[in-house]
Amino acid sequence: MRIKMFTRFTRVFIVTFFISFQLQATENNMKSFEIVQETINKSPNDTRQYQVIRLANSLEVLLISDPDLKNSAASLSVPIGSMHNPDSQLGLAHYLEHMLFLGSEKYPEINQYSKFMSQNGGYTNAYTAQDKTVYGFEVNDSAFPEALDRLGDVMRAPLLDEKYAEKERHTVNAENETYVDNDMRKLYALQRYSLNPAHPMARFSTGNLTTLVDKPESILQQELEQFFEQNYSANTMKVALTSPRSLEKLQAIAVKYLTQIPNKNSTQPEITVPLLTDQQRAIEVQLKPTAELKLLQINFLVPSVKDQYMYKPGAYISRLLGSDHKGGLSDYLQNLGLTESVSAGFYGLHSEHYSQFSLTFKLTNKGLLEQDTIVASLFAYINLIKEQGVNPLQYTEQKKSLDNYFKFLPKSAGFNYVMGLSANMQHYPLADLLSYSFRLDAFKAQFINQLITYLTPDNSRLFLVSPNAVVNKDIPYYEGKYSQASIKKSRLQKWLNKAKTIQDKMILPVRNDWLPENLTLVKPEKNKKAIQLVKESGLSVWFKQSQLKEPKAMYKLHLNNALNDQSPAARIKINLLLNIINKQLSELHFVTQEAGVAFAIGSSDGLMISTSGYSDKQDELLLMLLTHLQNMQVDEQSLTLAKQELKRRLYNKKKTKAMDLGLDGFRQLVRQPAWSDETLLAAVDQVTSEQLVELSKQILSESSVRLLALGNVSPIEVLQLVAQLKVKIKIQPKPFYTIKRLQADPEQGALNYVRKSELEDDALVSLYLSAKQDEMSLAKAELMNKLLKPAFYDQIRTQEQLTYSPFTASIQVGDNVAFGLFTQSPAVGSAKLYERFEAFLDSFKKTLNEVKEEDFEEIKAAHIANYLAKPSNMKSEFSYLLNEWAQGKQEIDSKAQHVERLQSITLKDVQDYYTNLFFNKQDVQQIIVQVKGNKFKQEEVLSLTPELSVSDIDNLPK
Ligand SMILES: [Zn+2]
C-alpha cells in the first residue's frame, strides 16, 4: 500500500550462517522441514523462543514463540521491488502488491482477505520498497491457521482477476496523486532521478494511470502475471511468524499452510550498473517546493560497508556529524543564524553495493543566502573528525549506549515486529537478525578512516529546496519544477579554502554524563493499582510501578494553567517559547537521547514536561528542565527565527495534505477557544522577548501541578522528587483547569466548517457527536467501528475507488463520544463524498442487521483480547492509563471497567446505537469539516439543512 523510503542502517549480505543440510528427498522419506538456525543472538531482556526452519519448498520461516501474546502475526517478504519493474510498466511491483489480495483460488471473494483479519481482531498491511515487497497481517490466535492458509493461497494461486484491474489501477494512481505535490516525496524522487540514468533506481517507482497501461509491446495484465510467475517463489521469500503457540506447533502450521507456496527456483535479478558515474558527482539539484520549505541536503554515496556491521564505521561518523553539542557543527551554524537544525544519517541504499551519508540542514532566510558557508563548515568539521575524532573515547561512548540499549531492548511484538524481521531476513545473517544494529565488537580506526576519505567536495551531491530555487524542468510524474547542474571546480575549491578558516572554531563532543549508572530494579509494590500519593489543593501525584522488569520509568509533569487560552497572543507566546526552549535544549536532547533517556516539552492546558527511558537520572533531568525554565533568557536572534518558523508553519497549513487540514479543522472546532490561522499569524509580530521571559516565570508561579510517575520508581523517590519540585514551582492551591471541549447542540443543526486548500484534492471529515454523557457509548462505538471500518474501506476504496485511504474512528470529545468517517479524494469533491458516505451508512444498516450473533461475539472477544494482552513495553502497558490521566480524570487505571463494559454489550446494543447515531440522531449533532482543493473549486460546497455554517473559526463562541 505504501512505498517505503530509505531504510536505516547498512544492508548486509545474507552470509550463509545456517547449519548446512540436505533435504532427504527420497519419495518415502520426504522431510517436511529442517531446522536451519537454532540460536539467534537476543537481548537478555527477551524471553521468547526463536528458531528458523526451512520447508520442503525451500521457504525459510522464522518462528517466534511468545506465550504472552493474544494475537498472532505473520509477515512475508519477497526480494523484488520497484527497482525490478520492467521499463514498459513502471510501478508494476507496487500494482502487483495491490492486485494480490483481491481473491485467490481457494478464497476467491474479493477483499475477504482483509475482512477476515479485521473480523478476527487484526489487520493487514503491505509496502513496496526499491528492493523488496513486504506483506503482513495480525490476527487473533484462534484464527491464525486459517489466516496463514489464506496468505499461502494468495502466494500460491492469486486470481489477479482482470475484472478488478481498472479499479486497482485507479487506486494506485490515487495513492500516487496523494503525494504528487508532497515536497519530501519530490526530494526523494529527485535523489533517485539524479543517479546514473542507466540504473533502475533512477526511475519513477509508484506507478500511475499513464505508466500502468497497455502499450503496443506490453499488455499490463500479461506483464502482471509474468512478473508474479517469475519473481514470487518460495526459495527467495522469507517468512516470520509470531504466536503464543509453542515452536513445535508453529513448525506444524508453517509446514501445513506454507509448503503450498511453489518453489519456482527464482533467482534475484542482479543489477550491476553503477549507481553513479562521474557525471552524477559534485552536482547541485534545485527544487522549488510547494510549501515554504528551506532545506539543504548534502549526500555522499560510499561503497557499502555491509560486511562491517559489527564495527559500524558509518554510524560512528554520522553520530559525530549529527551531534548537537556546544561547538559542534549544528551549534556553530545555529549560532551564526544560518540553520534551524542539522541532522545526519548513514543509510544502506536499496542496492547491495552502496551506502549513503546524508546531512540535512534546515535553513533560515540568512542560511539561504550563505549556503557556501554551511557547506564549508561541514568540510571543516569533517576535517576535525579526521584529525582528532577517530579515537577510542568516541568508540566507548557509542558502545556503552548500544550495549545498554540491547541489554534492555524494549520489546517489539506482533505485526510491526514480524514486518521488520521478514524484511531483514533478506539482508542479514540469521544469527544476528535481532542484534545486528547493536553489535559493536571492536574499535576499527582503519574502517572509519577509509569511509571519511569519501566525504569530499568532489563526491558531494547537493539538494537545495528553496522558494528561490532556479528551476527549468518539470519533475517527471510529480507536480513542480527542478534543475540539475554540475558544480564548478572553483566553487568546490572555495569550500575547502574556507573550511580551513573555520575548523579551529569547532570542537568534538566529550563524555556523556547522562549514560545510566544504576540499572537496578526497585522493590516491587504490593499494590498493583495506580496509587494517588498526594492529593492536595493544586497538587495531584499518581504513581504506578511497571509489571515489566526493566530499569525504566516515565514521568509526566503537568504545570496546569489557563495562560495559553487567554487570547491569540497568549497562544502564540507559548508556541514561541516552546520553540526557543527546545532549541536551547538541543544539546541536552542529543546527549540524553544517546544515553537512553528522552524528554519532551509541550503545551496544552499549561505546560507538559515528559521524560522516559532509563529510570536512573530521570528525576535529575526533570529538575534540570525546570531550572532552565527558571533562568530562561531569550535573545533577539532566537526570537526572530522562532517567529519565522511559526509563521511558516501557520502559512504552510493550506499546503499540507487535504486530510491533515481536515483533521486540523476538526481540532479547531472541538478544542475551545480556537482562533483562525490568520488571526494567530497577525499576533506573531507583537511578541517581545521580555514577554516570553515573563511567561516562563508565570508558568512557574501561576500553575497547579499534576505529576504522574510510572515504572521503576518507588513511592519514596517520587515523594522526594515532589519535595524538590515544590522548591522550584510556586504551586497554586486552585482547582485544575481543563480545556473546554465542544458540546454538541443538536438544535443548531449540523456544524459545517469549510476550509480552503491550495492543493488539488478535497477532503471530508463527517462526524456524529453525541450530546449525552454515557459511559457505555465509547465501548459501543469501539465495537461498532470493528464492524464498520472494513466495510467502509471496501466500499469507498475498492468498490467505488473514490479515495486511497478512507477510514473511520471513534473519538472522545471531552466526556462525550464522536464517531467519524474520513477521507481525502482526488476523484470527487466534498459534496459527492458526503453523498457516498451517506449511501454507505444506509446500505450498512442492512449488513449490520444481518450480522450473526456468534460472529459478533467473536469480534468482541478479539477486541477485548487486545486490551488484555500482556504489554510488550512500558508505553503499551500504560497507554490506557496515560490517556485517562491526560484527560484529567479524577480516578485513573480503569481499564478493567472498560473491558467489563465491552463484555456486557450485545449485538442489539450496537445495532440500536448505529440506528440512533446515524438515522434517528436523537441527542446527536453532525460536525462536518470539508476541505476544498483546486480541482473541485467549481463544484458546489456541501451544505446540510438545518446547519450552522462556520465560515470563520474566529466567530465561534470563546
Ligand atoms: Zn499502495
TrEMBL record:
<dbReference type="Pfam" id="PF05193">
    <property type="entry name" value="Peptidase_M16_C"/>
</dbReference>
<keyword id="KW-0482">Metalloprotease</keyword>
<dbReference type="InterPro" id="IPR054734">
    <property type="entry name" value="PqqF-like_C_4"/>
</dbReference>
<protein>
    <recommendedName>
        <fullName>Protease 3</fullName>
        <ecNumber>3.4.24.55</ecNumber>
    </recommendedName>
</protein>
<keyword id="KW-0862">Zinc</keyword>
<dbReference type="Pfam" id="PF22456">
    <property type="entry name" value="PqqF-like_C_4"/>
</dbReference>
<keyword id="KW-0645">Protease</keyword>
<keyword id="KW-0732">Signal</keyword>
<comment type="similarity">
    <text>Belongs to the peptidase M16 family.</text>
</comment>
<feature type="signal peptide">
    <location>
        <begin position="1"/>
        <end position="25"/>
    </location>
</feature>
<dbReference type="InterPro" id="IPR011249">
    <property type="entry name" value="Metalloenz_LuxS/M16"/>
</dbReference>
<dbReference type="InterPro" id="IPR001431">
    <property type="entry name" value="Pept_M16_Zn_BS"/>
</dbReference>
<feature type="domain" description="Peptidase M16 middle/third">
    <location>
        <begin position="406"/>
        <end position="683"/>
    </location>
</feature>
<comment type="function">
    <text>Endopeptidase that degrades small peptides of less than 7 kDa, such as glucagon and insulin.</text>
</comment>
<feature type="domain" description="Coenzyme PQQ synthesis protein F-like C-terminal lobe">
    <location>
        <begin position="783"/>
        <end position="878"/>
    </location>
</feature>
<dbReference type="InterPro" id="IPR032632">
    <property type="entry name" value="Peptidase_M16_M"/>
</dbReference>
<feature type="domain" description="Peptidase M16 N-terminal">
    <location>
        <begin position="61"/>
        <end position="183"/>
    </location>
</feature>
<keyword id="KW-0479">Metal-binding</keyword>
<keyword id="KW-0378">Hydrolase</keyword>
<dbReference type="InterPro" id="IPR011765">
    <property type="entry name" value="Pept_M16_N"/>
</dbReference>
<feature type="domain" description="Peptidase M16 C-terminal">
    <location>
        <begin position="221"/>
        <end position="402"/>
    </location>
</feature>
<dbReference type="InterPro" id="IPR050626">
    <property type="entry name" value="Peptidase_M16"/>
</dbReference>
<dbReference type="Pfam" id="PF16187">
    <property type="entry name" value="Peptidase_M16_M"/>
</dbReference>
<dbReference type="InterPro" id="IPR007863">
    <property type="entry name" value="Peptidase_M16_C"/>
</dbReference>
<dbReference type="Pfam" id="PF00675">
    <property type="entry name" value="Peptidase_M16"/>
</dbReference>
